[in-house]
Amino acid sequence: MLTGSVRRRSENSEELRWGRTFAGTALLLSLIFIASLAVTRYIGHMEREACFDRLVEEARDIADYVELSARKDREQLKVLATVVAGYPDLTSGELAALMGSFEDLGLMERLELLLPDDRVLTAEGKILNVRGILSFKEEAARGAHVTDRQNDLEDKDAYVLRHYVPVIRDGKTVAMLYGVIVIKDLPIVVNVTPYAGRGAMYIVDGRTGDFLIDTWHPGKMGNIWALGERETARGYDGPALMRGMMEGKSDYIVFVSRTVGEYLYFYYTPININAWRVAVSVPESVVFESSNTVARLLNALLVFEALCFGIYLLWMLRTVRRVTTAKQKRLEVIEHINAVERLLFSAHENREHLYAALDKLSSILDYVRLSFFILSGGDTVRLYVKEEGREVSERELLKSDPTLKMLCAYFEEGRELLLTYSAGELRRLFPHVDLSSVHSLLAVPIRDENSGTLMGILTFRNLPEDPAQLAFIRALTFSFARFCSNLRQRTALQERGDRDTLTGLYNRNRYERDLKDILSRYGDSLTCIYIDVNGLREMNNQRGHAEGDAMLSYVAGAIREHFATPLSYRTGGDEFVLFVPHGDPEILKSASLRLAQALAGKHYHVSVGMESGTCLDSLTALIKKAEARMYMEKQRYYATHERRVAQDGKRPEERYQPQF
Asked: Alpha carbon of 304 to those of 104, 298, 300, 301, 313: distances in Å?
């Protein structure tokens, strides 16, 4: 009757458990679905906010750059005006030669001099009559200033800007010196590429709507008001663009581009020159996708420049480009390093940040393979590898690995760097490793900043001989050391929080967290052993909880003695779950029997259920089968075991023998 009652209770419990499982699964799927919708909406919102923030930043950077360039040009013009004032004859060839010696001065292409009789002295020495075109009286009355879009004096179809400063002699304005800014060359002179060349920049006259710079339609001098005729996205108004431009506001508009056939995000803001406005636009595909076309645009620019200026100027421009690219690369490297440090700061809490940090580091270094060894107090090391064209991979490595063993011995002697470009030296250092494809190796130790203890090692294969890259890598060692230190502290705290204080085994929280990792790492061959301590309640009731705790502690020690697996958990008051990867089921059955027999000698009894599997798709099924076997064993124990103590206090002979 007892067996039937236990069976019925077990069946009812199983039905209840499955019912809860189905209900929990349905609830979980509903929550996942709802969370997915919420996350999708949130990500979309954040991406759009980031797009607008980036547009504002790009536009303001361009405005600052143009204003700074104009100020520098004006200062240079004032200095030249002082020199010009010293010439008695303002139409002399000597003065023209002086002006001709200044070409490509900041934003200006050439210098010219407007005389009081409305004649202009050019840098070539020509005297042009510009009456009716330019007015000395009007320009002198305005003082130092930049004009809006005007026609060139000699090429009537070309548009220019004129940057005037007065030439003052004896307190009177005797001429107006101006620099000619050729509008069609402004994009090249300004040389600003929003969004790494995938966006477009504009400078617009807010009073007329005329474009001064339009990198989206190079060679065309259109009018911004035409955008009001374009199809706009919902919530945006074309006429509002005209009002905002004219009133000097900063605002957005999103419209359909006829050029690329998709939405363009457009932001404009005023600049402190005349009524000019700076604007930046970028296609929606650039905002929401990570792709880079800067190299293609630069190559196209180089081809264009080669056709226009010839071999000599091409060589000069390549030189300028090489210097500019080097400076830009240094700035980008600094930005990447800051990004790496920010990611490493929180990488001990989020492993994805470590992956992202290694990806960032790899993007600024010319290498084939990057490896990061994280040392710990155990027998294994965590290794992260980033190879060119591949994602970061993670695996465990034994400390006895020949390469790691040599590196640890090398740095434990106090050395601060291992750097070699010699194939012979590499073979001498690593005689048991195939390094036929490796022509250089850099290894940097990661040490504790206080004790100097070796906590990790960074290695780079095939790194070029570049002192700057070496300096950047060494500069990052502090951040990697801080990460390793934080990781150790967090691991230690987590380890203490994951341990059951009574038995020393992992607790239920650690058990739940490890399940997914256990399946992914050992699902090819795994055994689950489910152990329940019989009679704990009776022990607590009859002898007190101290005796019950002593029994559980003793059982846990016996489990550690008979099963050498770190995957041992106390999942409940009297329940233990063990996972043994790649174990022999027969050997584990024998170990389970020896465990039960050893505990019986102490008058402690356990029920053990075991289940093995290979190529597992689900860990839950394996655990449930082991648990079911344990319950069957528990039923058999209570059906055969005498639970009452004889009147004289002696325990009767046990008739129960465990079966596995």
From this structure: 19, 10, 6, 5, 12
Q: Which helix (H) or strand (E) holds 13?
A: helix 2-85
Residues 535 and 605: beta-carbon distance below 8 Å: yes
Q: What is the dihedral of CA 53, 54, 60, 66, to 10 degrees?
A: -170
Closest to 568 in 3D by CA, of 531, 537, 516:
531
> What are the pLDDT digits (tens) for 569-588?
999 889 999 999 999 999 99
Our CA angle for 29, 31, 35, nearest 5°, is: 120
Q: For residue 260, is pLDDT > 80?
A: no
Beta bridge partners of 579: 528
pTM above 0.90, yes or no: no
> Sorting pLDDT into bands at 50, 70 and 90, what band is 25?
low
Instruction: Single out the residue of 606, 603, 601 nearest to residue 532, CA to CA.
Output: 606
Asked if residue 205 lies in contact with residue 212, where contact means CB atoms within 8 angstroms, the answer is: yes
Percent helix, strand and coil across the chain, each to the nearest 5: 50, 20, 30
- Please provide the size of the chain in residues: 660
Distances (CA, A) of 497 to 11, 13, 255: 35, 31, 55
Beta bridge partners of 606: 533
Q: How confident is the model at residue 119 (pLDDT cuts 50, 70, 90)?
A: very high
- 594 pLDDT tier (thresholds 50, 70, 90): very high
d(CA 517, CA 413): 36
Going from the C-alpha of 570 to that of each of 374, 409, 537, 634, the distances in angstroms are: 29, 39, 16, 18
The C-alpha atoms of residue 600 and residue 270 are separated, in whole angstroms, by: 87
In angstroms, the CA 294 to CA 199 distance is 10
Which residues partner with 444 through β-bridges? 458
CA distance linking residue 279 with residue 89, whole number of Å: 44
Strand 568-570 relative to strand 380-387, pairing: unpaired
Q: What is the largest CA-CA distance in the chain?
A: 135
Residue 79, H or E segment: helix 2-85
Instruction: Work out the angle at residue 517's Cα, subtended by the Cα atoms of residues 453 and 502, and round it to the nearest 5 degrees.
Output: 70
Q: Which residues neighbour 370 within 8 Å (Cβ) at sequence distance 6 or greater? A: 358, 361, 362, 385, 386, 387, 458, 459, 460, 461
How far is Cα 552 from Cα 507, in angstroms, rounded to an integer? 13
Write the pLDDT tens digit of every residue in 491-514. 777 777 788 889 889 999 889 988
| Average per-residue pLDDT for the chain | 81
Condensed to tens digits (0 to 9), the pLDDT of residues 178-232 reads: 999 888 887 777 777 787 778 888 888 888 888 888 887 776 767 877 655 677 7
Query: For residue 315, what is the enclosing H or E element?
Result: helix 294-347
Give Cβ neighbours of residue 490 (< 8 Å, ≥ 6 apart): 348, 349
Contact indicator for 440, 461 with CB cutoff of 8 Å: yes
- Rounded to whole angstroms, the Cα distance separating 358 from 339 reads 11
d(CA 66, CA 161): 14
